[in-house]
C-alpha cells in the first residue's frame, strides 16, 4: 500500500538519512542544522511510503510575493536503490495538488535537470548564472550595515515589484541563521561571501563595486539584468522552474530554499 503524508516526529531521522545519502552529505554533520534551521516544521516535510518503508521525500518552504503566496520545493530525494521508479513524481504531484486545493497553487524549485520536473507541470522561468563581475573597485567590503537598515532597504526594494520575494520575520530569521552579512556600498548594500556576490540592493553596475578582483555573481539572470550587469560569459548552474506562477520571480540566492 502507498501512503503520502507529512512525516511524524519519530520518522525525522530516516527522512534525513535519505536526504543525506541522495545529496552526499554526512548524516552526523547535517543532523543539527536539519533540526535547528528556522523553517524546520514536520508538517512541511513530506514522504511517500510503501508499506512501512519511506521511499521518496521532499520539503516545502512557504514563500510570499506581491502577487500572493507560493511554495518552494527542495530536497527532493528517493531512497538509494529505488530511483527511477516514479516515486518522486507521484509524491510531488500529490503534494502540489494538496497545496493548490488549500489556496497555494504557485510553486518554485531550482533544478539541475529541468526535464524531470517538466513531467509534473513545471516550466523554466529563469537560470542561475555564475559569472565574473565587471567594473569592480578592488578593496575589501568591510563596513557592515546595521541589520535594521538592511531590512528596511530590502523591504523597500521588494515593494517595488510584485515579482520580488517578500521577507517576513521568519524569512529574516532564516537569512541571519545563514550568517548573511551586508556591507555598505554607495547608497545600498552588497551581501558578499567567499568571492561570491549573492545579493545587491540599491546599487547599479554603473558605479564600480567595492569588491575584490575576481568576485563572481551567483544569482538569477533576470536579477543580474535588473542590476545592469553585463557578462562576457556566464556558466549556468541551475534552472529556476515554476508551476502556476503568474510572474517572473526576483529572488536573491541568499534566499535559496
What does this 3D model show about the protein?
- The radius of gyration is 19 Å and the shape is elongated.
- The protein has an 11-stranded mixed sheet, with helices on both faces.
- β2 and β3 form a beta hairpin.
- 27% of the residues lie in helices and 31% in strands.
- The chain contains 7 helices and 11 strands.
- By secondary structure, the protein is an alpha+beta fold.
What's the SSE blueprint?
Blueprint: E1 2-6, H1 12-23, H2 27-36, E2 45-50, E3 53-65, E4 68-78, H3 87-101, E5 107-111, H4 114-118, E6 123-132, H5 147-158, H6 169-177, E7 182-185, E8 188-193, E9 196-201, E10 216-220, H7 221-227, E11 235-243
Helix pairs in contact: 1-2
